Amino acid sequence: MSRYLSTSPYQLGNASVRRVMLLVLAGLLPGIAAYVWVFSPIILVQIAIASAFSLLGEALMLKVRGKPLSLFLGDGSALVTAWLIALALPPLAPWWLVAVAALFAIVIAKQLYGGLGQNPFNPAMIAFAACIVSFPALMSMWPSVTLKLSFIDQVQVVFGLMPHVDAMNGATPLDSLKTSLKLNEGGVNVPSLLATQEVFGYFAGRGWEWVTAGYLLGGLWLWWRDIIRWQAPLAFLAGLVAISGAFWLWQPAQYASPLFHLFSGGSLLCAFFIVTDPVSGATTPRGQLIFGFSAGILAYLIRVFGGYPDGVAFAVLLLNICAPLIDRYTQPRIFGLKGTR
Amino acid sequence: MPHKLFRFNGGVKPATHKTDSVRAPIGRAPMPERLVVPLHQNIGGKPQPCVALGDRVLKGQVIGTADHWVSAAVHAPTSGTVRAIEPQLATHPSGLPTLSVVIEADGKDEWIERRPVDYASMAPESVRELLRDAGLVGLGGAVFPSHAKLSASKKTPMEELVINGAECEPFITCDDMLMRERGEEIVRGAGIFRDLLEPKRVLIGIEDNKPEAIAAMREAVAAAGESFEVIAVPTRYPAGGAKQLISVLTGKEVPSSKRSTDMGVQCFNVATASSAYRALTFGEPLISRIVTLAGNVEQPRNWEVPLGMTIRDFIALGTPRADTNRYLMGGPMMGFELPGLDAPLIKASNCIIAASPKLFPPPPPEMPCIRCGSCARACPHELQPFELYWFSRAANFGKAQEYHLFDCIECGCCAFVCPSHIPLVQYFRYAKGEIWGRERDKKAAESARARFEFRNERDEREKAEKAERLARAAAAKAADNPLASATAAPTAASPAATPAPAAAVTAAAAAAPTSPAVPGEAPAATGEASEAERARKAMIAAAVERARAQREAAAAARPHDAATSPEQ
Ligand code: SF4
Ligand code: SF4
After folding, report:
1. Which of A241, B186, B437, B498 would suit a FRET pair with A226, their CA atoms being 20 to 30 Å apart?
2. What is the ipTM score, two decimals?
């Protein structure tokens, strides 16, 4: 594999896949810190579980495929997938669900397609979608941030040493909004709902709004470090704001504000860490705008009108299918072929 | 008045490594005892040797004459005796031999009679011819014959003449030092180009990491009373690429399909300008140039060297350190590894870098492409290198061309930034070589077919002629022997002989136009259009050669290394 460069360039920059992936992980830290602060350190346990099983799956598959273990195991890409899965699943999900999701993402969605760089779909989103389809009940058990349960107890819940009690089973803010609206067809008013129900906070889900704000912060940092480009995230958020804004302006009583949608569910995590995935996303600047914007609109539609609590994963997967096509038709004009200025 | 600058896409900022070699002034290299002067040192035609074995030559005497318009003469760098005219190791990554004149210096360094001219009183055409016969080529490394770039487009008026002092590649400082020490020569040379092209403005572009050179050039321009603008451009590789510098200074993007003069702009390197000045004002042909010796040597420095000095003699001037394992010519971004120390310094040699594993460590292992797009953002030609990479890898050359493979200038920016350490440029060279190779095979097949058809026709013609002869003989016999005529005439003469003369004529007529298609018999094409065409072909041929050599080198990587390292 290794080849001594016999031709130029002889002098190379310091970029490496490992460095890119580690910086992405660092970009997740503000969100994780907020998670720990508003909810509980249990998320760190989940991250550890997901990481362990991702690396395990990666190692096994690399071995089976006869690829150099040291090179690929250390590239950090499996860890990024693992962390995203842990952050996307409910924090009190049983350990085996996290493990299954991690293994599924790495073994099926990544390695079976050819490993690093070859997967047409975002592995974390595939795993998330598979879980939500196979275990809808477990996947919708988002505890309220006001849940009083000691860390030790949470760990026991995760490892199945303590049963899930009903009190722990909340619903995501998006879910509660949807359910409430469904239950009182036409009779409710979103603003008053948001003001009265405990699950809602200042501008989105109570507590969770700060976690998503952490993702925003980390994402902006990644952009500043030139690890991600602005096109896909901005277009995603623009798409989400555009469509949610349109519905909101049309019937403010029935539809939540764009702000609520921005800071709810997986919006910001998706904007900065999922639609920016280079492997499965669009690569041309215009393509990334189209990719992001469409994903934002789709995410809203699935989230509000579909049967799932959040539409982000499905939106991204649908767009992953279109990415090669989008790239093909958005090839930039090259030097000298743009007409003289 | 600050000049408005434009931006080109991408580019990178490699560590420049330029400070070590600018401490000492330009040194004059001692004349070596033996010089190897390759005849083909330019893009375009191959100059033909015009001296014989054992001839005594004088310094500056023509030893190879320009064979075409796009070609440039080659001269003896010193006085001495022609010891050999034979293929010698080329200063080329292929390491193939190239026809060279080996001169044993007599130590007298005796000039041929030099004829300074007052170019202002001459017809522009004669000035261009003079420059060709002085062997002037682009000294930035492109070695395109300069005189062929000195005609304005008939349709577009010349607006800007760009003088390139950007020197963006790491390690190279020969232009920097030239500008510092010989600004006047550059300004005068630029004046010659200006007079031939008649642009509205002359812009001298220098990267802003060379403040001394910028100051020196401003002073030289003022001293000469010229109105040239000396412009500091942001330091960003490859700002010194002709197209990039033109685009930074004028905002004009010259597409690969056009000549820059078609867009009213032309670009010359500073060293080319100074050599043009010396050629006309002192009658000194291009027999020396300034070469940077840098990298892993004790005394990095710029030297004025006679062209033909071997790399071995040259590097001795800087004392390479013990761990030097190879030598590069050009910069680390676009240069190449020298095939051996016996190769000579040529007109294209701007810099020799002694490389060590510490200086240029082997790249980390290649990983799969993660489609991060860094390469596309770094590409000054706004290509999608990773797409080109996928297509090249899959041998999908049609697609690669559709994605503008041939617009790639092999600047190396993409490979520089790639987090997966993919040797992208190597893939592109490979793909280009393959495409050229296929085209050449196709051409070869076509000419083989033409040859085959020609032979067929000749055979038929000969058959017909034979039949005719037989018929004539038979007729003669019949006349001699009237008795036999009744029987002989119908048998021998009738079916074959009657149409024979006509067939022979048509066959000959048909054969005549096909015969030039036989390789080696191509008529010397004339006219300016074909000059460009020929230059292009020569470039392609050179690239094919390079690509093939690379493949071979890759196949035989180990003996290749072994060949270069022990020479140290
Ligand atoms: S920089 Fe390297 S890894 Fe990134 S897209 Fe280009 S070729 Fe692929
Ligand atoms: S080597 Fe070619 S593809 Fe790569 S950056 Fe330079 S021009 Fe672009």
Report:
1. A241
2. 0.88
